[in-house]
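Researcher: Batch entry, complex prediction.
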Amino acid sequence: MSTTTATLEKTLGIPPHVKPEQVFEFDIYADPRITDDVQGSYAAALRGAPDIFWTPANGGHWMVQRGDLITEIVKDYEIFSAREMQIPRVPDPPYMIPLSVDPPANLPYRAALMPKFSPREVAKLEPHMREIATKLIDEVVAKGECDFIREISSRFPVSIFMELMGLPLEKLREFRIIADNYFNARSNEDLARLGGQIMGIFSDLMEIRAREPRDDLVTSLMNTEVDGRALTRDEILAMCLVLFLGGMDTVTNVSGFTFQRLAEEPAVQARMAADPTLIPRAVEEGIRLHGVICTPRVVVQDTDKHGVSFRTGDMVLNILSQVGRDNRANDHADAFDIDRENKVHLTFSTGPHLCLGHILARAEIRILTEEWFKRIPSFRAKPGARHGFRIGTVHALEALPLEWDVSA
Amino acid sequence: MGRAIAISRGRPPLVQIHYRTHDGRSGAFEAKVGQSLMAAAKSANVPGIIAECGGSMVCGTCHVFIDETWFAKLPTAEPMETDLIDYGLYPRPTSRLSCQITVTEAMDGLLLEIPPSQH
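Model: Structure tokens for the complex:
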């Protein structure tokens, strides 16, 4: 072992089961190498890192950046459990249903939620989603400019989600702030307080729906049986917590990053405008390039795999956004190529915890993009504007000032 | 028509699976006995099988229609599988999730059809 490594071990407290060549320093919450091009700079920063590496930052944890390895880990729940997903570890980690529940116990919950997120339900929602998208875009089109995040992508999916859940739309901004704060929280205290705030929202809603049932998800969960019994209040709240965090932020982020990239791709824009049947392919390419989730697991059984000694209690962060950017999986992975035949990515993860909203998310981004291109076929980023971002287990873009020509 | 099952020493026997797409193309692929029909179709790049969850039975994107005569010979689906099929866009009486079908030697020559889309 070299002197440098020995020093590194001493100062950074790298555990003895981590080999020196597996250490690569990366701060998932504040790495200085990350820029407004979040996924692109992430891929560049990790280009020299092993497929599985240990970062001493944030309490020390593994990071996995190759698709087949991530697929193996998220499916191998007997070794890599989803029951703890907080990095650094906290004594009392948040509990979400079905996200924190390993198979087979997660399946009945998943089954309870599936009807509302199924292809059939999403297809039924399509006309209404189109209405909302049209309304939001019509509000900005004549101005020739907008902050795409604030005015479009934070409002569109979130409005749909809130309606689906049965939440009052006038609380949209307030709820977005709570979700954002949650993703920035590190201490058990802050997580508990914000989690409590979110569950408080749903607890109030459950009381109202007990008196006035509606055709929304909360009402439906209150009347759903799992394994022949009704869901408990705590179970429903633990389900609402993950739905809230998923619904308030992720589609906003994927569509935000996709439009940030499209703004730099006039030739792609021209093709999408000329032939709207290309839009679903373009959207999938945007999804491939702009994964926003890093999904953590905790090792619950010592195991040696792929040259790595995973030890009980180690946290393992699967960087889903890296898969689409892997040149071994996609030729010229950083290029936006609508015609790419096989768009390899794990933006929605895979295995038993595959994103419940993957059908809804794809439909939302497609519909938003279709309606946008009908009205704004060509647009660009406002020169010189900083976008700002948040990284961690969910990547977000803070602002996206766009502009376009308005015909008189 | 009967066909000899390919057996090579030490390896699981292979069977031949035939498929038709909704727009009338057809083809065949080899499946190893013991693997799932989905895994075999994915390895052979059969068009229209997505299998986003990789066989965890939570996504329904490996949906296929099994030819009627073959359908009757398969073990019946669990309720969760039937639910997932019913939530999809193209449920039919002979629908199955290909991740839930384990290939056996008796399936040599099985015919399936790929639905118009998975979502």
